[in-house]
Amino acid sequence: MGIFINFCAGTDERILPASHVDALLVNPLQHVINEVALAYTQRMIARAGATYVMMDSSGFQIHTIENNGGVIGFDPYKPMMCRQPLEINLSPYHVVDAAVKLRPTVMVALDWPIRKLDGRFERDNEFMKKFGYNIKWIQETIDLRTRLCPDVLLFLPLQFYNLEQLRFYEVYLDGLNHDGLSIPTRNLDASGIIFLLMKFHSMGVTRVHLLGVNTLRAIAIACYFARNYFDWCSLDACNWRLSAQFGDYLDPNTLKRKVFDPNKNFSFSSICSCPWCYYRTYFGYLNTSKTEQTYFLRCHNYFVITKAGEDCWEHSSNARDLGRCLIARAGNKDKAINKLIQSLNMVEIWRGGNINVLKDLLNAKL
Predict the structure, then answer these.
(1) pLDDT tens, position by position, 204-251
(2) How far, CA to CA in Å, does 250 sit from each of 48, 206, 216, 243?
(3) Which of 36, 41, 307, 338 has a 20 to 30 A CA-CA distance from 286?
């Protein structure tokens, strides 16, 4: 049995969503860009009482600059910088140097994210355009980490659209010194994530991080695989903050946006047990300032996401118990939840068989 970690992303010292946040996700460009930012980040970590700190590589910022048509530089001899939305300079040296200064629990090697594309030809071109960069940066990061901060765990990010492309990584990663893998999930559904996790397990991987996802389904998947297959399975997202920013209250059970009738008053404690809902009424909430509303929503949203992780972990020893937990939360008419439960049951029936057979059983789109 391993550990499940839900990293809180997109925060700073001013907007920590709880008095204790056990796991924080930071990145070099925002949190270690200079000495002032570094000191601020160290204070945030201390104030949160964080046990785990993951330092992402800021690949998302590269992705954003690229989409905006900006200038992308990878020069280690120039300072690390990002001027949204126009220009960025970031290299493996900058990422490892940030890890040396911050000393996180785990760092993610620099990668150039692939874009969300539909056509096979466009996807192949995008993969080949960036695969060389990503493999080169992985090797550079491994070498630098070995010399400068061997005590920091290193996860390698994989950017691919399908299994054929994953095989390229398998060849190049064989024998490399790393501690786990990190995968973006924006191009995957639940069955695709489940199949990939089983594929990684068959490759001997013991630690996996799911990047930028925090739905009830993703939390359930991560808990199940941490409990049954991996030493470590983690995920991160900043939807607790972004939802609050747009005035969205996350349902305590489904973690989906909950819509209220503006003409009906009620006590939030009737639908949620978190300490921020305990003493609030809906009309009372509407009569507070935008700043107070956002603060309340951030704290509530983070609490219910954390609680979902605790509940799923408690019931994740097998697919049957986890399925009951999910149905108790989301009901038995949620098609996505039902498909997830079916997929996990397939994994338990298949357990130890041919990995290609599992792909067909799950109907995984990869």
Answers:
(1) 999 999 998 889 999 999 999 999 999 999 999 899 999 999 999 999
(2) 23, 32, 11, 8
(3) 307
